[in-house]
Amino acid sequence: MTNSSLNVIPDMWTNYEHPWYNQLRLLDNTMISESPLQQKPKSETTGQKCIKKCTLCKRWDDASTMYYARRNGFYRHYKCATIERSNFRKTKAQLDPSAPKRYNHPEIGKCHRCKSYDSKKTFDYRNRGHQECDRKQLRNSYKMKKHKTDTCAFTGLPFGFKSEMKPVGDHDHDTLRYRGHIWSAANRLEGAAKFIMNETGWTVDELCDALKSYLAKPGIDIGLEPYPQLGFSTPEEAQQHYGC
């Protein structure tokens, strides 16, 4: 990489969004966000349909039937979002009131890259982290991209069009050694597993045993509602229906 290409990275970053962190924000923010969401501007081409996937029911539909969450960059059916908020309230009611609340401070935030706390004035325009950390992440992504293959280094399966199957460069955060490109879902799994093992002191086997025990639990009925069957199961079906 030449020096001239590095000089343009700060300007490019305002338009760059790594797919892994897109997915992290979905898991981290959608279930607790109470902020108003904005409608995606309609296509300038008259009569043209834009087919998008609802992040809640996972079905494809005309984007004009959904709202666009600008902060996350995702589309959701209005009815699916209503059910999501209702289910969240019911789930939250089961939480012990003494449970620690998520850290929230008007001036101090946590950088999503280096995980350190600092003044939000030093963060990027989204208040998510240090600009220098973002620039280093972008440079590292360029370096890993040269080694990308056609298959996931974790599952051994090909990458796919689904967001969970998109390629993400993975590396050891302690040694900075590149391990391979893997599914974005596998990248989140690896990061979450490492965090749990660090916090609990579990081994990989103990983590797997805990997961098996947890998944075997029957759960309790608190009146949660399923998402409606809106739209279509594939983008091709939606395109054929809307004639686009």
Q: What layout of secondary structure does this protein have?
A:
Layout: H1 3-7, H2 9-12, H3 19-29, E1 51-53, E2 60-62, E3 66-69, E4 74-77, H4 78-92, E5 108-110, E6 117-119, H5 131-145, E7 167-171, E8 178-183, H6 184-200, H7 204-215, H8 235-242
Antiparallel strand pairs: 1-2, 3-4, 5-6, 7-8
Helix pairs in contact: 3-6
In brief, what are we looking at here?
The chain contains eight helices and eight strands; from the N terminus they run H-H-H-E-E-E-E-H-E-E-H-E-E-H-H-H.
Protein described:
The structure is a single chain. The protein is of the alpha+beta class and 244 residues long. Among the domains are: 59 residues, no CATH class; 72 residues, no CATH class. Helix content is 36%, strand content 13%. It has eight helices and eight strands. The strands form four sheets. Strands 1-2 form a two-stranded antiparallel ribbon. Strands 3-4 form a two-stranded antiparallel sheet. A hairpin with a 6-residue loop joins strand 1 and strand 2. Helix 3 packs across helix 6. The longest helix has 17 residues. The N and C termini lie far apart (41 Å). The N terminus is likely disordered.
